[in-house]
């Protein structure tokens, strides 16, 4: 028979147990404090991540659903140095249109953003990004320059221009991005529901006096890429205009989300280098743009006066 096992531990077990190295009290306290500190840092890191996620989601405990807010936010950057009477009329022009269609407006000042030595015209880019952070539930953000007026308030852009089926009918495909002979052309197989930025061309290139961006992570990427300090430091001749043309031509991820539409849809020129086919303002167009009316000793207020008269329904010979 095999020998019976005893319930008493073998001698070496006791010897091993007794031979373990005792931890000095001072070292034990250091290890205890290190453990507590590690736990505390882990808890702090967890709540920091939770706070960042809530902050990026708009500051609420739950994410805001795109489409739950106003369908369109109209963004116009205001120059605080401009004639305030004229500024108020420009703002009212947007507010009346927005109220008619259930939209919202946003009027930041060009000095609200860290442009450093860049031209003030760059402010339009962070202004749209700012509007997105304030209106996370809205679907579209329409930037409309202060040099433009909405002339046909009966046109509702989401149903008449931006609905996928309508957008596909208006999209200009296989067109040089920079006229007349850019080798980079707009894609020919895009679907309307895949479009996140809608722009127009004038005679010289892509315009920024009026453009539309769909809310979402891609739009944030697009605006951040456009506003990159590297591009602002390039000293492009036309500042943000040439920067936009650069990223559209050299970044396929942007061109793949871009729709080029006829200029007269929402960017008709009263003066300036209008697109020869469809860029000149005509009665009934949604928008009348006076490009450059704030430069070269010109006056937007003077050039818009007769158009304000039309909007206000006054006789054309009115001196008010």
Mind explaining what this structure looks like?
This protein is of the alpha/beta class. It folds into two domains: 25-63; 72-311, Alpha-Beta Complex (Spore Coat Polysaccharide Biosynthesis Protein SpsA, Chain A). The chain has eleven helices and nine strands. The chain has a six-stranded mixed beta sheet. Strands 4-9-8 form a three-stranded mixed beta sheet. Mean pLDDT is 86; it is low at 12-19, 55-61 and 316-320.
Summed up, what is this model?
This protein is an alpha/beta fold and 320 residues long. Helices cover 38% and strands 10% of the residues.
Q: Which of globular, elongated, flat, extended, rod-shaped describes the shape?
A: elongated
- The total of helices stands at 11
Radius of gyration: 30 Å
The SSE order reads: HHEHEHEEHHEEHHHHEEEH
Helix coverage percent = 25-40%
**CATH fold descriptor of the largest domain:** Spore Coat Polysaccharide Biosynthesis Protein SpsA, Chain A
Query: How would you characterize the largest beta sheet?
Result: 6 strands, mixed
Query: What quaternary form is this?
Result: single chain
The CATH architecture of the largest domain would be Alpha-Beta Complex
Give the low-confidence spans. 12-19, 55-61, 316-320
SS strand fraction? 5-15%
Q: Ends: how far apart?
A: 123 Å
Domain module tally: 2
Mean pLDDT: 86
Supply the helix-strand structural class. Answer: alpha/beta
Highest-level CATH class of the largest domain = Alpha Beta
Q: CATH H level of the largest domain: which superfamily?
A: Spore Coat Polysaccharide Biosynthesis Protein SpsA, Chain A
Widest β-sheet, arrangement of strands: 2-1-3-6-5-7
Strands, count? 9
GO molecular function: alpha-1,6-mannosyltransferase activity
GO cellular component, one term: mannan polymerase complex
Biased composition (Pro residues): 1-12
Protein name: Glycosyltransferase family 34 protein
């Amino acid at each position: 028979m095999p020998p019976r096992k005893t319930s008493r531990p073998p001698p070496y077990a006791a010897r091993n147990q007794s031979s373990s190295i005792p931890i000095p009290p001072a070292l034990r306290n250091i290890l205890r404090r290190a453990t507590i500190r590690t736990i505390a840092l882990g808890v702090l890191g967890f709540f920091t991540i939770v706070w960042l996620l809530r902050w990026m989601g708009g500051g609420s405990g739950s994410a805001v659903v795109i489409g739950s807010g106003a369908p369109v936010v109209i963004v116009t950057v205001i120059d605080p140095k401009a004639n305030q009477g004229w500024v108020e009329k420009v703002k009212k022009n947007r507010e009346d249109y927005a109220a008619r269609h259930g939209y919202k407006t946003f009027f930041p000042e060009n000095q609200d953003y860290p442009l450093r030595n860049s031209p003030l015209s760059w402010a339009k880019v962070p202004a749209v990004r700012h509007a997105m952070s304030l209106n996370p539930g809205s679907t579209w953000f329409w930037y409309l320059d202060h040099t433009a007026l909405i002339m046909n308030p009966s046109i509702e852009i989401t149903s008449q221009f931006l609905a996928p089926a309508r957008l596909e009918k208006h999209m200009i495909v296989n067109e040089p991005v920079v006229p007349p002979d850019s080798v980079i052309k707009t894609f020919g197989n895009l679907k309307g529901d895949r479009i996140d930025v809608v722009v127009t061309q004038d005679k010289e290139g892509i315009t920024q006096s009026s453009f539309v961006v769909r809310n979402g992570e891609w739009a944030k990427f697009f605006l951040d890429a456009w506003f990159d300090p590297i591009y602002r430091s390039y000293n492009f001749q036309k500042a943000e205009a040439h920067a936009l043309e650069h990223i559209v031509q050299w970044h396929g991820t942007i061109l793949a989300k871009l729709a080029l539409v006829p200029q007269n849809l929402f960017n008709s020129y009263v003066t300036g280098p209008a697109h020869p086919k469809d860029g000149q303002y005509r009665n009934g167009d949604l928008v009348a743009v006076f490009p450059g009316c704030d430069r070269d000793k010109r006056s937007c207020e003077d050039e818009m006066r007769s158009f304000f008269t039309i909007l206000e329904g006054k006789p054309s010979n009115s001196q008010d």
